[in-house]
Input
Amino acid sequence: MTAKDARVDIKTTKAAKAALEQAAYALGTTLSAFILDCAMPKAREVLAQSSQILLTQKENERFIAALQSAPKANEKLKSLFKKHSIKKRSHHEKI
Amino acid sequence: MDLITEQLNTTLHDRNSFDCGVDELNVFLKQHANQNQSKNMSKTYVAIVAVSSLNPKKIYGYYTLSAGHILCDHLPENIKSKLPKYPVPIARIGRLAVDNEYKGQGIGGFLLHNAFSNVLSIAEKMGVYAVVVDAKNNDAKRFYQNYGFTELQDSGLTLFLPINTIKSASELK
Output
């Protein structure tokens, strides 16, 4: 397991804290574990939907290098365009 | 089978009978696609047959498109100077799925080509550097890699293909 090396302090109302503690108690877990367990799936979902992708330095360099000299289209990609544009043309001919 | 694509319309397209074998992708089409579309988060395109007696029409496959950006922070100065201000804009194929009964008939390729065509016309009017896809599993990852997509993040399921590579393939006669 990864070491817990960060801290989250949350300010809330007494009522909210009591409700969270009761819910955690009902599940036999701690307040921290309860809050994290509830929030993490949502966080993952939000990140998957997010428009923003953050890269490490190494990944950045690879990405930028590929953009600066875009690789040639491979055969499969070329034939994808060939196949579907030919289809379109013959479709128009039919009409 | 002559397939065409249309933007998802819940009254014209039958979302309920769609089954691609991946729960998350089925649920997305049934429960979230329409809402994401009306909120302008992502647009969903469905493959249907041009002429059908069914009403609503059967969905053979679908994909989603949205705008995104890549943050490139810690770049060396010499690389940084060659590109415009960050973040780098991209087009994202968030999901792409084919109904189980119709797999192996090239519908995935048809959808990918359609997504590329859409992105190419968007890229005429808006800055787009690359197409980024989120593969749901390793099979999907291989599907994209066959077309030249490479990993965006180390050993991840998010892949990319530069827009210029796609553009060059589209311009071949």
